[in-house]
Write a structure and sequence with these properties.
Helices cover 28% and strands 16% of the residues. The protein has 147 residues and is an alpha+beta fold. A 4-stranded antiparallel sheet has the order 1-2-3-4, covered by helices on one side. A two-stranded antiparallel sheet has the order 5-6.
């Protein structure tokens, strides 16, 4: 990740941390993780279900959407466990992708999203935009898991 991306990302991280904290979640970046890799504990709003662990990896910030995958624990590289994935529409554990306009995987699968209402928005705080969408999607299915 280039210096400009690192600096811009660092400027947007506090708002993401604050948002996740307000929903009983938490953002992690470990010393051994490469620049641009974060782990987010996303707590469903019903309070009865355990948090999801989202693995978010930025390559160029804010100009490209991140890779977004779900794992069972922070630092886990295995992404295929169905119980790690939300049961929300577009969160496809079998394909190991989140088919949404705010992910690198979704944009790669749908070139038509490169323009129009589904195009990636690099203005404002894109990291916060991604996390708000993930939280909304998880809450919409009451924290249900795919597996």
């Amino acid at each position: 990740m280039d210096l400009e991306s690192r600096l811009r990302l660092a400027g947007d991280v506090p708002a993401v941390e604050e948002f996740l904290s307000s929903t009983a979640g938490r953002l992690h970046h470990r010393d051994q993780d490469p620049d641009g890799l974060f782990w987010a504990e996303v707590q469903p709003d019903n309070g009865e279900r355990s948090a999801f662990i989202a693995r978010i990896e930025w390559t160029v910030y804010p100009d490209r959407p991140p890779s977004l995958l779900f794992v069972e624990s922070i630092g886990d590289s295995r992404v295929g466990a169905p119980n790690a994935w939300p049961g929300a529409n577009g969160y496809r554990y079998g394909s190991n992708d989140v088919c949404k306009p705010f992910t690198a995987e979704g944009q790669r699968l749908h070139p038509e999203w490169g323009s129009g209402p589904h195009s990636w928005r690099s203005t404002g705080n894109p990291f916060l935009h991604v996390m708000e969408n993930v939280q909304d999607d998880i809450d919409r299915v009451d924290g249900r898991r795919a597996g």
